């Protein structure tokens, strides 16, 4: 019955309209001017959860003035396990805007895809959960297990208020397992369950020079340039073998078993697949590892942005007074963000050119995580996938970070099921993000089936 | 009589009002949106030249759609030499705006200084010329020599249309010597004549990577980052001894005579003077040379601006699709901009990391220049300085470039007198540019005296 409901064209059309409504909120958590959009979106979600038939729908205020999250539950299946559905309704900034072929906050249907910021990361994916729940409640009138739904508003800024929120809401959020659809499959028709995530560490490096901008004709060659010093420090962060040069950086990186590397080689894309997908002639990075391994089992350090000097029209002959870089690291087991931050601080103190000043600001971080594959909830998820897709899921790891996951794992000690329906070409965090609509609908079927399979 | 006129408070007050009017035009030649301000300023200047009593005041259209220049003359001294007064009424961009303590286009009198963009570079300085001419014409009623005044509108963008303009206007502009006040004195009370200027070469380096921005969590460590590659290429442009690493870069750098270095050591500021002036703990640059030598007799390479990736509020986990740097070089005799551009192109082709693409764009350049100190016009200028300031001028060289100078020197083969009244702390090209008003008025006296001294 729920499956039948989820196949009715009239429901499917309405679901796409609802998804478009949700995608229209520019819920960019990194940009304070979108605070009201975030609040409006939270209200929309609260009302939507109520309409589905869930109970106790409410907006949970963000601790420390952070963005709110939205909660609802259905706990009328005594003796059955409780599953926490997690999603995040905040999105990444849309820059560079001019690279978007369609307006980022106006869902646009092209072929088999729906384009908008947040379509895959994560509004489209958590709506899959809600529509599976709806399918049950509107047909059977009840759910086979107990569920809690929690939609966060700060994932894209590294969930800074999560520890405080978990302290306050532990009882409300506690469950036997957590389901998250915020990852992707290995490819079309290759459903995957992620059992490992890289951690991260975000930081900003500011290099200061003269008190004010100087004329580079006059002082060029005699005064060190903050932009050049910044380039030197960034260039020095990798050696010729593509390894990060920060002393101690690799000390805790766990040796990966040969069997696992073998498994990744079979399951994952080849270097050629990745390069073809990205339309790149060549990869880059740490010698001795495949591109896929570099993406998921090896740590990485990336410059996300640099800003300094004059970049307006024409030329300006200037030695700028300061230059700033935004960087981020991806960490693997058992690297620890605090420890790495300490190594980083020490490293920059050592390599700082003497003629400039530097300021290092840590702006966020979360530890890497590995989830045990041997739990009834994961077995149930596997079965649901097999029944819906006709193939068993590939158990694999992801290069991205979901700060929520390690926190929650540490807090509740329950398994986190990372069962995502995104595709590698969804362009999350980039212009022209999209979701595959066949995946959206088949995702709903998968979750309906999972609710059945997880019943004791 | 002219000197007396130039001392009358009523004239001095009016001159400052006129300077303020001229400084109010935001004549930023690098920014196309200021085209009308430039045209309005040219009109103001044409009318001002007429009011002074000069003849043939007119706006000369810029060739190839470039900014106009303003011309006037007074040629009624038969048998006497003809002096061309050169100035430029365009100014540098004002960024960063928030570092200005007063509005950049509203002249503000603080203590002995007048603050505004262009106060020293070059509106305030060429107004010195005009007020010396005015002092003669309003008292004696004539000038001791023939003069031509030419005010350019594209100096700050490297005078791109100067060759075409000289081709068209050669007859009109031809003179026996050229006077330019667009440089600075060595310090308060230390008038200087510049007899050498560094050349320059401006370029933009763009590094391209993936077709669109990628999620750095996902691809970090496996895809080369245009920002990082850019940093590597920039960091590689200098070695540990502060020397530019481009092969062949120093091949034509003229060996400087021991006597000249001795002279610079006596005339110029010490390292300590320069660092105190800039409030910097330490200099930077090519080993084996003093800071002053690095600023004027050694070539230099500077990053003027970098942009790429996400630099808005919060974090964005991105590998950007491209990164751009603006750079400029200062060249010394006998380096040639075209040849250096060729070496640069070859160098970047060699060092380009294989996983990215690069595009080098040359955006301007001018050769270095040396002016003979033995010409009657320079002798006359020396005498005028000695009489007005009580000390002989220091003959020195400057680190900056005035593209007009080498072009004009090459074209007319006449001496260029670089007699400036700026001070080292005028902050030209930076926020809070100013001119010293005592220098402004004493500059007028100096030019009045020079007009007498240059008479045969």
Mind summarizing the main beta sheet of chain A?
Answer: 9 strands, mixed
CATH architecture of the largest domain in chain A: 3-Layer(aba) Sandwich
Rounded Rg of chain A: 23 Å
The overall pLDDT average of chain A reads 95
Per CATH, the class of the largest domain in chain A reads Alpha Beta
Distance between termini of chain A? 20 Å
Please name the CATH topology of the largest domain in chain A.
Answer: Aminopeptidase
The low-pLDDT segments of chain A are none
Can you say what the CATH homologous superfamily of the largest domain in chain A is? Zn peptidases
Quickly count the domains of chain A.
2
Count of strand segments of chain A: 18
Description of the molecule:
- The structure is a homodimer of 456-residue chains.
- Chain A has helices at 2-7, 9-23, 35-52, 123-139, 162-173, 216-219, 226-235, 258-267, 271-278, 291-296, 337-351, 376-389, 404-412, 437-453; strands spanning 55-60, 69-74, 82-88, 108-110, 113-115, 146-152, 177-180, 192-197, 199-208, 214-215, 300-309, 318-319, 322-331, 357-366, 369-370, 394-398, 416-419, 434-436.
- By secondary structure, chain A is α+β, with helices and mostly antiparallel strands.
- Chain A has 2 domains: 2-197 and 368-453, Zn peptidases (Aminopeptidase), CATH 3.40.630; 199-253 and 299-366, Alpha-Beta Plaits.
- In chain A, the strands form 4 sheets. In chain A, strands 1, 2, 3, 6, 7, 8, 15, 16 and 17 form a 9-stranded mixed beta sheet that branches.
- Chain A is globular and about 80 Å long.
- Strand 11 (300-309) of chain A pairs antiparallel with strand 11 of chain B.
């Amino acid at each position: 019955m729920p499956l039948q409901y989820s196949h009715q064209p009239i429901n499917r059309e309405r679901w796409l309209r609802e998804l478009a409504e949700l995608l229209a909120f520019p819920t960019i958590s990194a940009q304070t001017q979108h605070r009201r959009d975030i609040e409006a979106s939270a209200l929309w979600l609260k009302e939507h959860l109520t309409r589905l038939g869930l109970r106790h729908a409410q907006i949970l205020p963000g601790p420390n003035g952070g963005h709110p999250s939205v909660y609802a539950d259905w706990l009328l299946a005594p003796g059955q396990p409780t599953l926490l559905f997690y999603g995040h309704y905040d999105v990444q900034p849309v820059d560079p805007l001019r690279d978007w072929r369609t307006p980022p906050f106006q869902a646009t249907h092209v072929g088999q895809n729906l384009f908008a910021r947040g379509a895959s990361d994560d509004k489209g994916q958590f709506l899959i959960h809600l529509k599976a729940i709806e399918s049950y409640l509107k047909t059977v009138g009840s759910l086979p297990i107990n569920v809690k739904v929690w939609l966060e508003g700060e994932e894209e800024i590294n969930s800074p208020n999560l520890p405080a929120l978990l302290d306050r809401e532990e009882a409300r959020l506690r469950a036997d397992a957590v389901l998250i659809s915020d990852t992707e499959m290995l490819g079309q028709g290759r459903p995957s369950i992620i059992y490992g995530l890289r951690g991260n560490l975000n930081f900003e490096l500011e290099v200061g020079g003269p008190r004010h901008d100087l004329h580079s004709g006059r002082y060029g060659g005699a005064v060190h340039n903050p932009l050049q010093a910044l380039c030197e420090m960034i260039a020095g962060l990798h050696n010729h073998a593509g390894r990060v040069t920060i002393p101690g950086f690799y000390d805790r990186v766990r040796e990966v078993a040969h069997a696992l590397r073998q498994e990744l080689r079979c399951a994952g894309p080849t270097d050629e697949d990745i390069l073809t997908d990205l339309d790149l002639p060549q990869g880059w990075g740490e010698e001795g590892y495949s591109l896929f391994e570099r993406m998921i089992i090896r740590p990485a350090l990336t410059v996300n942005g640099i800003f300094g000097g004059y970049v307006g029209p024409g030329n300006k002959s200037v030695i700028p007074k300061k230059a700033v870089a935004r960087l981020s690291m991806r960490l693997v087991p058992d690297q620890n963000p605090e420890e790495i931050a300490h190594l980083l601080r020490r490293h920059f103190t050592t390599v700082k050119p003497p003629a400039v000043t530097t300021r290092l600001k840590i702006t966020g971080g979360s530890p890497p995580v590995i989830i045990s594959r041997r739990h009834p909830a994961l077995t149930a998820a596997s079965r649901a996938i097999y029944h819906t897709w006709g193939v068993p899921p590939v158990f694999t790891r992801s290069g991205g970070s979901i700060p929520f996951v390690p926190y929650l794992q540490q807090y509740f000690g329950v398994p986190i099921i990372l069962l995502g329906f995104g595709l590698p070409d969804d362009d999350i965090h980039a212009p022209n993000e999209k979701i595959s609509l066949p995946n959206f609908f088949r995702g709903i079927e998968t979750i309906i089936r999972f609710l059945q399979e997880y019943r004791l």
